[in-house]
Write a structure and sequence with these properties.
Layout lengths: L3 E6 L2 E6 L5 H11 L26 E6 L3 H9 L3 E7 L2 E6 L1 H9 L4 E3 L1 H7 L14 H14 L4 E8 L1 H6 L6 E7 L10 E6 L6 H17 L4 H9 L1 E5 L4 H7 L62 H11 L21 E6 L4 E4 L11 H15 L2 E4 L10 H9 L2 E6 L25 H14 L12 E9 L3 E9 L5 E8 L10 E2 L1 E2 L8 E9 L3 H8 L6 E8 L8 E4 L22
Parallel strand pairs: 9-10, 9-11, 11-14, 12-13
Antiparallel strand pairs: 1-2, 3-5, 3-6, 4-5, 7-8, 8-10, 12-14, 15-16, 16-20, 17-18, 17-21, 19-20, 21-22
Length: 592
């Protein structure tokens, strides 16, 4: 039986021919038909691999040079079993010996990865990284934070995992999130959403998410920026989006997907090329199935499920994320979200040291491409990763960040944390890589980027184009408060600097203007200063205020009329320095 199917990706129509010709015969025909000098993929439209009957012992991991998204698209069209990794220009894929021969005959640069092939053929687990929190310990941590900080943290059970839905407690897990905000301050607040461990084996991501929660809660009323963030924003963190799969990964198995056992006749326990479940990060209901369709090998690591949003975890996440964001023009229909759109979503993954933004399913830029790239480059400047459109890693569809941007208009990103190799490479690096082992510091690298993303959540498409405020210095004597700050417009002239007391401009229309120290705001880097007498007016209000009201907020505007993000300082604090915008960015090919 032959099944011919045409699948269309927005901006990239392509025809995929499926058949059951013997692969050796295909390879022979290709070898005879391939013109000298032909590019791989240009003459392989009739080549397609069916993987459903592959025996695991026959599979091998090979490297295929696919330097461009177009080449990667061609490879995926052939029906390869993607290993879900890239090393420079090489994609790693799973093939049989016959498939490898067919690819070579078709002109692809194919090389065996012996180390990963040996690991693939062993179903024994990797060395378990015992220092990472278990699913149960993460649940307890979330409950403890909600109990310890009831005025700031709310625990939310927003759904059930596949096993909990199928079998009920005690099987499976609740899907849990922590909502962080100062509940005493009401009103609409922009939402920063952080999602981790949707791929079970990516151990470091959940740890960064739980550490971010701790950093915010313990920093409230200590760090002025964190205090302002939790006063005027809502931060939602889902540390483990795939708890069923995560529990298996804790035992050292390379489980990526959820544990839906209705997906095919897969091996158990799993290995890194054959496992039960659905890839939740291919299951979201935008552009679903346009790169990897439901007819691929169901034990593949990128199996997207039988239909869009088929999995309870995906359904719950879509409903939960939607609940925080108002309707906007839908970028999925080609309409850009307005520059005033609030909301940032970051999903944490491993590995490749990348900051990625939509789209992943096409090389066509997203409607908000300029704004997405601007913020993406700023985030990459903070953590030192390489920025790019998601498709530059490899083509994907049905992903979290494509869906959240397409449907809700919010600025959405993926952080790929960690390198391909070295002691801190791969999906299950030693716990110490979070804090300096092997020259890596995953936590220290990503904290500034996450904080900056939260700071610009009110207007992520515009604020990163405005000036940054840093080197805030507050000096008081018995009569006068003097505040000095530096503003950096990066590539635009600074035009104005404003100071707010306690509440930012979203709910406060009373601002005090800083004056230029050198007499005029006419350069990209400026110093502004304001002096307030402490016995009258605003100065007296500040001096006599309670600790929580002695929060000073500053922002700058450039000559294009764009306001940058706020920075905060306490009245009592001196030399409170905001050095993050000064990170060297020349390696990124331009300004952040």
């Amino acid at each position: 039986m032959t099944n011919d199917k045409q699948r269309t990706t927005p901006g990239r129509p392509r025809t995929i021919v499926r058949g059951l010709w013997p692969i050796a015969m295909i390879a022979l025909l290709l070898a005879l038909a391939l013109p000298a000098g032909a590019m791989p993929g240009q003459t392989t439209r009739s080549l397609h691999f069916t993987a459903s009957n592959q025996a695991t012992g026959q599979l091998r991991v090979v490297r295929i040079r696919a330097a461009t998204p177009e080449e990667a698209f061609h490879l995926i069209e052939l029906g390869i079993n993607q290993f879900e990794a890239r090393d420079g220009d090489d994609l790693l894929v799973l093939v049989t010996a016959a498939q490898q021969a067919a690819l070579l005959a078709a002109g692809w640069d194919v090389r065996l990865d012996r180390t990963r092939t040996a690991r693939l053929r062993s179903v024994s687990p990797q060395t378990t990284q015992t220092d990472y929190r278990t699913v149960e310990e993460t649940e307890q941590f979330l409950r403890s934070m909600a109990e310890t900080y009831p005025h700031l943290a709310t625990l939310v059970d927003f759904g059930d995992s596949w096993e909990r839905q199928q079998f009920g407690a005690p099987r499976g897990y609740d899907l849990l999130a922590l909502r962080l905000t100062n509940q005493a301050i009401t009103g609409p607040k922009p939402v920063f959403f952080l999602l981790a461990a949707i791929h079970a084996r990516e151990l470091t991501t959940a740890e960064i998410a739980t550490r971010f929660i701790s950093h915010l809660l313990t920093g409230y009323q200590v760090d002025p920026d964190i205090t302002w963030l939790l006063n005027e924003h809502e931060v939602v963190v889902v540390p483990i989006a795939n708890p069923d799969g995560r529990k298996l990964a804790e035992q050292g198995y390379s489980q990526r997907k959820n544990l839906n056992r209705n997906s095919g006749d897969c091996i158990e326990p799993p290995n890194s090329g054959n496992q039960y479940g659905v890839d939740l990060n291919r299951n979201f209901a935008f552009a679903w199935g346009t790169v990897h369709g439901p007819d691929i090998f169901p034990c593949s690591l990128v199996y997207p499920g039988p239909v869009a949003a088929s999995e309870p975890e995906t359904q719950a996440l879509q409903t939960f994320i939607r609940s925080f964001y108002p309707d906007h023009p839908r970028p999925g229909d080609g309409m850009p979200a307005p520059d005033t759109t609030s909301g940032v979503l970051i999903t944490l993954h491993s590995y490749s040291d990348l900051v990625l933004w939509p789209w992943g399913h096409t090389t066509t830029p997203a409607p908000n491409a300029a704004g997405l790239e601007r913020l993406g480059r700023r985030l990459a400047a903070f953590n030192g990763y390489v920025p790019g459109q998601s498709v530059s890693l490899y083509p994907t569809s049905g992903t979290t960040d494509d869906w959240s941007y397409a449907e809700l208009g919010i600025a959405s990103y993926t952080f790929e944390i960690g390198s391909f190799s070295n002691p801190c490479g791969g999906f299950m690096p030693p716990y110490g890589c979070l804090d300096g082992l092997g020259g890596r510091n995953f936590w220290g690298e990503n904290l500034p980027a996450l904080l900056y993303a939260a700071r610009v959540t009110h207007a992520p498409y515009s604020q990163p184009a405005g000036p940054d405020v840093y080197d805030i210095e507050v000096i008081t004597d018995t009569q006068t408060l003097t505040l000095t700050a530096t503003l950096d417009g990066r590539d635009q002239v600074v035009a104005e600097a404003a100071l707010y007391l306690r509440i930012g401009p979203a709910q406060n229309d009373t601002a005090l203007n800083l004056q230029p120290v050198d007499g005029a705001f006419d350069a990209v880097r400026e110093q502004g200063r304001i002096r307030l007498p402490l016995d009258q007016g605003v100065g007296r209000d500040i001096a006599t205020a309670d600790r929580e009201d002695q929060l000073l907020l500053l922002r700058g505007r450039n000559t294009s009329g764009i306001w940058g993000p706020l920075s905060a300082a306490w009245l009592q604090q001196t030399n409170h320095r905001y050095w993050l915008p000064l990170i060297e960015t020349s390696r990124l090919g331009g300004k952040p």
